[in-house]
Amino acid sequence: MAPKKAPAYTFPDPIDNDTLIGHGDVMRSFADAWAARDTHPIHPVWMLTGPRGIGKATLAYKIAKTVYGNVGDFFIIDLARNIDKDGKSKSDGKVISVYTVRAMIERMQMSSMSGEWRVVLIDSVDELNTAASNAILKLLEEPPAKTLFLLVTHQLANVLPTVRSRARVEKMRPLNLSELRELCARFMPNADIGTATLKLANGSFGKIAALKASGGDEIYEELLELLKNPRTEYGDMMAMAKKIAPNPELHGILLDAVASFGLAELYPETTHAIADIAKVNLEPEIAVFKIIMDIKKCL
């Protein structure tokens, strides 16, 4: 019997997404600062930080659209627009190159003869390589007039302290369950999303979207039921391991199961075991099976 195929969902790119749920406090802070800019100069660098998938980039684009004068005054740095030293697209990379930043700076120097506000949006600072971070730092040391920098970051600790010190840092909180439900109703109206999946997301709609796209939410709920069932046998646990093992993105649900059952003492051991699946030459199915067995023994 062929495995059930996960339904396809389409989510708008943050630049095209007009639906912002939550984060009204940060939006109001910016709106107040923007409205008072003539009497109290607005901070030129705003850093939006928080977990992945909570809407930081969506908020950044929403702010940007209220500020820049025309399309020529908006500069975006991200992996999708990444280039190599020859100026060719390098969108399959994992880090943003210094060449991407330098090209943006060159375009800025030729722009905005109209005197309108310009916006530089970086999504995300975490993905800048060292040279790119240093190039941005030089720009932030003396920000050009009437230019707003919007810096998205997933891990504040990964940002150069010198970059962080030049920014107004806005810490964005994870979404609550009602906000997640609202987003699910908006973008996945026909999906059956249970409370277990909402809690599994830890306030990240992006995680729910990834789970639904991969079918991981159903596998997680099956895992919890299997662990709760006193009649679960070795064959059942191996069958579950075979569902989880092929997709490294699903390995994290094992940690979520540990947390769900309140097995704090098992968390460090499980974390190391999952890391070893990638590092050590292990059979993923056997490694995942052992983790499931260890959780089951503690219940």
Shape: elongated
- Number of helical segments? 13
What is the name of the CATH topology of the largest domain? Rossmann fold
Strand order of the largest sheet: 2-3-4-1-5
| Residue fraction in strands | 5-15%
N/C terminus separation: 32 Å
pLDDT averaged over residues: 90
CATH architecture of the largest domain: 3-Layer(aba) Sandwich
Characterise the protein shown here.
- This protein has 299 residues and is α/β, with parallel strands linked by helices.
- The protein folds into two domains: 22-171, Rossmann fold (3-Layer(aba) Sandwich), CATH 3.40.50; 177-297, no CATH class.
- It contains 13 helices and five strands.
- The protein has helices at 24-35, 56-67, 98-109, 130-141, 161-164, 177-187, 195-200, 205-214, 216-228, 234-244, 252-260, 267-279, 284-297; strands at 45-49, 74-78, 118-123, 147-153, 168-171.
- Helix 3 runs parallel beside helix 4 (130-141).
- The two termini are 32 Å apart.
- Residues 1-6 have low confidence and may be disordered.
Notable characteristics:
299 residues; alpha/beta; Rossmann fold; 2 domains; five-stranded parallel β-sheet; elongated
